[in-house]
Structure formats: structure tokens, C-alpha cells
Amino acid sequence: MARMKFLCDADRCIECNACVTACKNEHEVPWGINRRRVVTINDGKPGERSVSMACMHCTDAPCAAVCPVNCFYTTADAVVLHSKDLCIGCGYCFYACPFGAPQYPKVGNFGSRGKMDKCTYCAGGPEADGSVAEYEKYGANRLAEGKLPLCAEMCSTKSLLAGDGDIIASIYKERVVKRGYGSGAWGWKTAYKESIAS
Amino acid sequence: MLIKRSERQARHGTLAAAFANQTSGNLDRRTFLRRSGLAAGGLAAIGALPLTSVRKAEAAGSSPGPGATIRKNICTHCSVGCTVIAEVENGVWVGQEPAWDSPINRGSHCAKGAATREVVHGDRRLKYPMKLVNGQWNKISWDTAINEIGDKLMEIRAKSGSDSVYWLGSAKFTNEGSYLNRKLAAFWGTNNSDHQARICHSTTVAGVANTWGYGAMTNSYTDIRNSKTLFFLGGNPAEAHPVSLQHLLEGKELNRANFIVADPRLTRTAAHATEYMRLRPGTDIPVLWGMLWHIFKNGWEDKEFIAQRVYGMDDIRKEVEKWTPEEVERVSGVPGEQLKRVAEMFAKDKPSCLIWAMGQTQHTVGTANVRASCILLLATGNVGGPGKGANIFRGHTNVQGATDLGLDIVTLPLYYGLVEGAWRHWSRVWEVDYQWFVDRFDKTTAVDGKVTTTMNTPGIPSTRWYEAAIPTKDPKDNVSQKDNLKAMFVMGHGGNTVARMPEVVKGIEKLDLLVVADPHPTTWAVLSERKDGTYLLPVATSYETSGSRTASNRAIQWGEQIVKPIFESKDDNEIMYLLAKKLGFADLMFKNIKVENNVPVVEDVLREINRGGWSTGYCGQSPERLKLHMANQKSFDMRTQKATSGPDEIRGDYYGLPWPCWGTPEFRHPGTPLLYNTNLSIKEGGGTFRARFGVERVIDSKVMENGQEVTKQVRHNLLAEGSYSKDSELKDGYPEFTLGVLKKLGWDTDLTPAELAVIQKVNPTTPDAVSWSIDLSGGIQRVAITHGCIPYGNGKARANAFGLPDAIPTHREPIYTSRPELVAKYPTLPNARQFRMPNVGFDMQKAAVDQGLAKQFPLILSSGRLVEYEGGGEETRSNKWLAELQQDMFIEINPDDAGPRGVKDGAWVWVTGAEGGAKARMKALVTERVGKGVTWCPFHFAGWYQGVDQRGKYPKGADPVVLGESVNTLTTYGYDPVTGMQEPKATLCQIKAA
Fold this sequence. Notes:
The structure holds two protein chains of two kinds. Chain A is an alpha+beta fold. Chain A has seven helices and six strands; from the N terminus they run E-H-E-E-H-E-E-H-H-H-E-H-H. In chain B, the strands form eleven sheets. In chain B, strands 5-4-18-17-16-6-7 form a seven-stranded mixed sheet, with helices on one face. Chain B has a six-stranded mixed β-barrel with strand order 28-32-29-31-30-36. A five-stranded parallel sheet of chain B has the order 10-9-8-12-13.
């Protein structure tokens, strides 16, 4: 089976936030919950770069490792999903996640958290594909319809790529070759000290 | 461990069946590559896939499910023209899918486009007509609203004349709506008819049209992929036109293109630049002339192009000589070495294009700025071919179309102007007697008894309407019309978009009648202390109405009604019909337009536009052709915009039949993808510069003859020399076509008897004078094009635009300049009367210098756009998905300016403006994005005024989610002499911690 991945081509990302609102639109995500966001580093300075971030659907997901109720599972497509029926809103996964993906609605006083919510790779949850119950808890299930996550599909500059890891990698490789300079990939300059501009 | 059950039952059953064995994991590579935006060229290069199979696989992407209908419309938030695909179930817009087939956006959206479904959910929309009674909003019926408004309008007309009513229209109208709005003003009897283009690209339209014929983007967003040098001066498309960046960045990658951004801010666009130049706001001309200085000095100009196709470049040389690298650096701050490098790239790494938006236009020198830009393009031969040109990015779905259709104080639809000939042309198209219009306008009798009407006088610009509403102290400053403005009829136009809001408030309070017809109450409803005489009419958004829209690249797309107008909303066209009926001229106005249940049939409206739209080539785009394009989007090649497959009726057409699309629809002109491209024959979409300014210019010059100075007439040829479009039978410049010209050439015999009869009818006394633009048969256009000639003639572009206030673009300091010492050398133009009112910019600038305002207000204040919001922002700030992303009004300030003021990032500050003690409370964003001494605000906020939250003044439930101070509370005086454009891009302010 394929391994579904996200890749944000930082040379293309312009922080237009289409991915953020596409996600809101597709899943009717409420105010205050952001399954996806765009992070800008060096904001306003030379070398400014933006990257769209969400759950990265890790291979060995730290959230799953720390979950006390074992609510996470990985689908055959390597998408990391969770069950809101099992989740107790403890927030451990929030601390474990290196990307800040888990979100919690405020449900009561004293900052008490509701069930965790995060990017589902537009793949719903444990309920039957396309069921009302699934939609209400997790949003739309595009993957079951043969469609990719809407954030990537609507990306204004085709910066955010979603799909099988091998295909994404080949697309990105092709772009890098065409650009003719090292890579716009995050961290490349730190690792290889190549200038982006030349 | 949980395991996902594997039954593949989808939201939309049929799709699941189609993909029965195809989970997303197996999503085939072809579909995938296509969706990932690899260009067709890229695929071909790796030799992987034939394009046809890519198309097939992709078609499945947006198939409807059971019960869901797919409807296509155009995103309204900028001018790129992104197709929006809506899934509609039981009359409700339930989902949005990527529009893969669109050759413009290819599935993509920005934050606004991806959130646009919310606009039609309408949590915060105005739900029914309302009336302000003693300071309270009361619900009323549509009948009551139309009756009361109509009666009041007639009363004002009887007392103060027809010019005392201002019709402010919208760039969010469809083409048909725009046309009807202008027609409504014409039938009402006033030229006080305007829309957002006044504050966005009015100076572009005036400046560019005065240079080479038409004031629009010469190329297209997708064509920029062909550029080797992209020069951005006064634009931040990464925020204002995000989807265009798909083409710009891909072009940059494919061609390894120079991506040069000149801007006072290191914008999101500049973050992707190969070269960034920081300039002081308002110094575009010094930078452009500084580049030309290097180009002329090193002989990098395109001499052949200039000789054949440009008039007056030598006059430019003289002005440019003054702009040495030292002077440019002194005035603009751009270092000499960098400027030289950029000039060399622009002149040598061709094709080069220049991209601009409101950074150039919103200045007192806006018209001169855009002209200087055009001249840089002309000097380097960068007009009229792929990858070249003036790529003017406009701001709304249909601001191009609304401009074209004459929602403007200086012209009737399609740039015919206001002269008698223009009125007669449209009277013929409308089949209404010319004299009827004359009688509709106010008349004034001069001392000598001469009667004049305001029919041929440009109206009041929307930037200054409020001045016309307030009686002046000195009668000589009075507005030149029968009476002051008494009524504003505002459709789809924000109230916080005009500079000097404290003055605007006074103007609003003076009005007898204020009607706001909009999906939202807008700032108009809450800004003033009005207690009565205000009506709010709920209008459907563009998604709830069908019709055509013209994108920035002049391509026209047909959008379908996605859902019926929600709540009690009506669409613009219906409201205009109801109003015309009430005002008593509906039968005449809709003489040739069918009306069903009070809703005009939009196809009929477009056909009427076609019948009269010869001057701009709006004559070939019939509703049938446009609909066929929309239905066959995937047949168009993205890079060329040409239909390479699909039904015969569209084969060879350019997507959206970009104007000019000559002749009748039956003539099947393919549209003009690139203006002034001589490498294509006219029939295939080619063109030449328009011979709009006569065939020659005669100047009296003093010359020495036999040791004596004598005055001689020197004749300058304004027609092209030795340059002509492909397949042209005339191998040189030629004037515009008339029947007389056809006769001289012996081509009149090609006209059919029917065409001749129509020409005869247009002008029975002198048919020879009937030109290509008023010949209602289209015969003159057809015959000229058959002989390979363009109807408007083959002229030179004007580097010297004689007739304009600054025929040679001249640098002039902003009215409120941060560099008062430069005013002596670069003063603004003298005071003058323009557009029925005095423009006292010179006095204002002098006073600002004399009072030392630059010391009291030492920071430059500029304004611009955020990606999440649009325009005045009422619509987008009411959209919860967008509002969440930008919850506070802010001002960007450099750390060096913030530190001494004790201003901390994210803290509240008071910003004071240079006029009338204006103040505004907002948050500080301390950032190096702006240079030292420069501040910047987004212009989308409203609902707070001088520190006071006005949420309570909105009708209940119709207040936007996010409110904030408007930057225009702080902006100041300053108007372009040619168009009345305001100057919100360069003024002064002071900041202190709150």
C-alpha cells in the first residue's frame, strides 16, 4: 500500500492560508480549532520562508506512543487517525507532537479540554466511511472518494503536496532539478550551506 | 489497536463506485501529477506521460455525486478569475471542489477563494430590507423600500436636479449588472456614476490608454510564465493575487527568471525575490527614470522598436538625464549600483514584464507613474509579445468589466466618452431618442444666456463625493452643478475605502437620502450619527446571480447562479429593474431586454452590450460562446490559453475571448490574448498600437534659417513606421477605419448591402464618417480584418502624451511628504478645477511644508492588502473562516521607530493623522518588514472609529465578526489631476503607545 504524506515546498509557499480555510470549509471546523496552519519564519526579514503545517502522519507516531487510552491507529494508507469515542482529552499527545497538531476545544471552566481534534488527512475516523457519525466527529472523508486532502488540492501555488510519499518525492525532486539550485527544502541551507538565490 | 473498517462507502455513492478499487493510496500517478501542478511541459520533458491520458484521469476529480449538482462561478475576491466549483444539494451550497479544468487557477484558491462558500451561508448577512427610524433599524418590505426610496429620489430630483443623486456602483457586479447600473444613471440623467476602479486603477486606465490605446493588462497571468525578467513595482500579488503566484513562481523556476521586487516593504512577494529594492513611498518615477538613465547611457534600449512604434522618446531622454544615480538615491533611497544591475537585467534578460497594482496608482502622480512604467517597457521593446508587457493586476472579479462597461464619471459604456457622438451611439443601440436623454439632464444658463447641460461633463469622483455634499463657504468653490449632492445610492461599495474619513462622516450626515444595497450593512450604515433617511437593501452576492465577469487579462467568463438569493436578498439586476420601474423609465431602459418576474434576462443584456461594444471588442462574446468555453474549460491549453481540442465552435479560440474580440459573434474572432502583438494576424488575435491620437502632430517650433529665428510648423508622424501586424495588406502605419477610408482603399465593395444599409442609417448625411466603433453592422471591422488590418488603425505609442497635465511623467512629492526639502524642486501641480470641484493640492502641500508637519508627524503612513481580506472588508470580515485568521487591526512599525516610542510588539497604540487631529487605536506590529521611518496598515478594517467600537450601531446579527479602525481615518488630501485618484499610499502619521 501507499504511504500518504504531506510535503510543503517552502520555495513556493506564500502564506496565503488557502490550506487553512479549505480545511475549515471541507470539515466545518469550528472557530478556535486549527487543524492546519501556516508558520512563517524570519517574518519580514530577508530569508523569510513560510511552511504549511498540520499532522504529519508520522510513521512511528509519538502521539500514539503516549496516549493512555490507545485511541490512535494507523490506516492501511499510513494515515494516523484517532477515535474521539476513546479520547479522554488528557492532552498528552499535544506535548508529544513535534508539530503542534493536536487541538482541543474548550468545553468548560478551568480550561478543561474536550476531545482532541486534528488533521485526518481528509480520511475521517473509525466510523463507516461517509457516514453522518463520521462527518460529525471528524469531517469529510475524501480519501474514501478517491480524492486527496482539500488543503493540498486547493494550494494556490501547488506548494503543499499530498499523496503517496514516493510520488511526492519524485515531484519535488523534479522541481529541484528544474530550479537548478540545491534545494528550497527546509533545513537544506543549514545542512549544505548553499545559497537559495544563486 | 483500532483498525479502520475497510468498506469504501463514500459521501457521494457513485463516486465510491467509480473508485471502487482505487483507494487514495492507489490514486494513479497521472491524476496525481496533474493535481500537483506539474506543467504539461514538465511532463513532456521527462517523457513520462501523454497529456490526453492526464486529462481523462483528472476529469473524475469533480464529478457530482447523487443529489449534488455541480455549478461553476468565479471567485469574487480578486481579478485572477479563479473558477469556483460548488456542490449544491436541495438548493444549499454543501461543498466546494477544486476546479481542475480551469486554465487559469487549475484547482487552486487562496484563503478567500477556499472560504468563499461561507459567504453564501451568510451568518452575518443582511437578511431583509431595513430603514433607520430615529436611530433604530426597522424591518420593512421590499415594496415599501422601493416606493419610499423612489419617491424620495423624485422629490430630490424636482428640487435639486438629477445631478444631486450619486450612483455608486460595484466591481462585484457582473458585466451585465455594471452595464445596467451605468445605463440607469444615464436614464436618470447624471454622470455621477462611479465604482471602485476610481480608487484602484483609474490612473492606470487613464495613463496606459493615453500611451498606447487601451488601459488594461496587455498580457495575462498565465503568460507571465514566459517572462525572463519579472519586475514588480507597486504590487504584492502574494497577498493580493495569490493564485497568480502559481504562474509567476513556476515561470521563475522554469526560466530561472529574474524576480525583482521594488517596494517600501519586504512583502510576502519580496520573500521570493531574487532581488529586492526598498524605495521610499511615492518615488516610483525617480526609480523608473533612474533605470532608464542607465539604459540610455549604455545603449541598451531597443532602437528599432522605438523608431517604428514609439512617439516622443527623445523628450523622455531629456527628463531622464536629470535622474543621475546620485539624485535617484537622494530622492528614493535606492542605491545606484543596485539600480544599474536591475536596469541591465530588465533591458537585457528579455522578455521582461512590469507588474503593478495600487502601489503605483494611488498617488497624486498615479497617472504619471503608470505612464513612466509603460515608457520603460517601450524603451526596451517589451510590449506586444509573450512574456512582455504591462501586467496590471486588478482587485475584484469584475473591476475590469465594470470599468469597461462605463461605471465611470468620464464615459458611457466601453470608453465612448461623454461627447455627443457617444450619446448618439448609445441612443441608437438602446433605440431611445437622443433628445430624450438631453431632456433628462440638468441645464444651467450662463450669464450670456447660453444653455449647457451636464450631459457632456464628467461627474464627481467617488474619492471626493462628500465634498460635493457639503456646501462651501466661498461660492466660487461650489460644485459645478445645479445643487450639492443630496442622495447616495450605494451598491456593493465599502464606506471606508475613501480617504479622509472624518470628512466623509460630515458628508454622510448632510445627505437627505442614503441607500446601501449590499449583502452587508457596510461602514456606510454605522459611520455617521444619522438618525433617519437611511435604507439598507439586502443584495445577493455574485455567487447568487449568473452572468459574465471580465478578469484582469480581459478574458470573460460566464458564471452560473449557484443558489437562489438567500434570505430576502434580490440580485442587483432585479433591484435596478424595480427602481427603473418606480422611476418611470423601465419600459425604455429594458426595451430590448426581456424581463421575467422582475429579473432582467442576463443573456439579453449581454447581447445588447455586444450590439454596442465595438470600440473595445466586446462585440464578439455572445452568451452562447462564453457558456461553451465554460463548459469546455479543459480544452484550453494553460500556457497559451488556446483551445486545442473540444467542439469545433471553440477550437482555436482563446479562453474567455479576451477583448478585443472583433466583429459579430458569427465572425468568430478568437479574442486577443496579448495586446499589440504584431506577430499574429488580426484575425488570429494580433494587434498594433492604437492610432487614437490622430495621424500627425503639428508643433510650432523655432528654427534658425539663414541666421534668423523663424517659427516653422514641424509635423510628427503618429502612425507606425515600417511596423505592421502579420498578414497586413497595408505594410505601414494607417489611421482608424471609416467607410471613407475603406472607399479610398477600394475595399468598400467588400461590404454587403445589408452592412452598407446599416452604415447609411447610422449617419444618413455623411456615411463616409462612420467609423469602425459606431458601425452597428460590424461590416467595417469585418472588411478591415479580412485585409489583415486592425480596425482602430496602426499607430505609435506615445512616450510623450501631449494633452495630459504631465505629458512627460514628472516626479512630484506627495502632498504630505516626509521630505519637505524636496518640495521646492519637485512640487505638486498648481491648483486647478477638476471634475466640478477645485483641487487645492498645491496649497495643501505648501501649508504642510510651512507648518512643518513632517516634524510633528515624522512617520510615513502607507496602506495595502492582507491575503485574508478584501477591499473595505465587510464581506470577508463577516466570514468566520477568514476572520479567525486576522482578528486585529494593526500598524507595522520598524523596531528603530518603535523603541524610542516605547511601542511594544502586539501592544495598543494611538496613531494620529496629519489632518484635523484624526486618531485611531490599533495594535503595533514591530517588524523590519517596513524600513525605518515607514509605517503600514491594512485597509480592510472598519467598525471602530477614533477609538470607539461601533458594533452596537449595526443591525442586529449583521455585524461583521471582526471590527477595527480604518486606516482611512488617518489618510489625507491629495488627488491625481487626471482621474481624481486619492493618495493613501504616501502620507504622514505619528504613533504613541496607548
